[in-house]
Amino acid sequence: QNVTQTVEEEKPEPPTVQEIKQKIEKYNAKVTNCLLMKLNDDGTYTGFIKVHLKLRRPVTVPAGIRPQSIYDALKEVNLADTTDKRTSFYLPLDAIKQLHISSTTTVSEVIQGLLKKFMVVDNPQKFALFKEMRKDGQVLFQKLPLTEYPLYLRLLAGPDTDVLTFVLKENETGEVEWDAFSIPELQNFLMILDKEEKDKIQQVQRKYEKFKQRLQQTLKEARGKPG
């Protein structure tokens, strides 16, 4: 059972550098994949988080753009800015992206970073980052505030993703706010829905055509039997 909740918790006092150091040492002692956290001289720290993408609606990306190369990444080339053409498609269900972030990286920056890596040009406000936890046989989703620090949550929970997982989902506020989409986006959605409808119709037709053939074969065999 999935239960979605909104995070409305009072912020505790920020930990001291010594407390952070102790937590990082405890965290790193449990790491089995070399993805350690590192404490910096200024008291900040860096580490890795994994984000599961569970998007039910298509996203908008530049049309005809090749994947980003290492050269583009080093030069901070934004390939999405090289064309005005747009297309929409579904990201693979439950795709996982690993991010190297800082303790000062906010939820808002994580969302923007994920969209940039996948070259998604949709408004970041259409998406939200959730933390997924398991308790008493339930899967609990809590929407994180944009100012929250995901790496600190990872540090507190430890490296075990069964205890805490980050999930990117649509920013559901009830009914879909279609006014937030541009006309090209809406047109692309209609094209995708039309294609899905035709594919579904063909699946149903093939299913009943096979059923019809089996019935006809059964009747033919029955007529050929004596009595």
Automatic annotation (TrEMBL):
Gene: Rassf5_0
All copies of domain Ras-associating, residue ranges: 87-173
Keyword presence, Transit peptide: no
Matches recorded under Gene3D superfamilies: 1.20.5.110, Phosphatidylinositol 3-kinase Catalytic Subunit, Chain A, domain 1 (3.10.20.90)
UniProt cross-references to InterPro entries, sorted A to Z: RA_dom (IPR000159), RASSF1-6 (IPR033614), RASSF5_RA (IPR033623), SARAH_dom (IPR011524), Ubiquitin-like_domsf (IPR029071)
UniProt KW keywords: Apoptosis, Coiled coil, Cytoplasm, Cytoskeleton, Metal-binding, Microtubule, Phosphoprotein, Zinc, Zinc-finger
Keyword Cytoplasm belongs to the record: yes
Chain segments annotated as coiled-coil in the UniProt record: 194-221
SMART domains referenced in this protein's UniProt entry, alphabetically: RA
Protein's cellular compartments: Cytoplasm, Cytoskeleton
Single GO cellular component term: microtubule
A molecular function GO annotation: zinc ion binding
BP term (GO), one: apoptotic process
Lineage: Eukaryota, Metazoa, Chordata, Craniata, Vertebrata
Transmembrane segments: none
One Pfam assignment: RA
Domain SARAH: from-to ranges: 175-222
Subunit text: Interacts directly with activated HRAS; a RASSF5-STK4/MST1 complex probably associates with activated HRAS. Interacts with KRAS. Probably interacts with Ras-like GTPases RRAS, MRAS, RAP1B, RAP2A and RALA. Interacts with RRAS2. Can self-associate. Interacts with RSSF1 isoform A. The RSSF1 isoform A-RSSF5 heterodimer probably mediates the association of RSSF1 with HRAS. Isoform 2 interacts with activated RAP1A and ITGAL/LFA-1. Binds STK4/MST1, inhibiting STK4/MST1 autoactivation.
Name of the protein described by the UniProt record: Ras association domain-containing protein 5
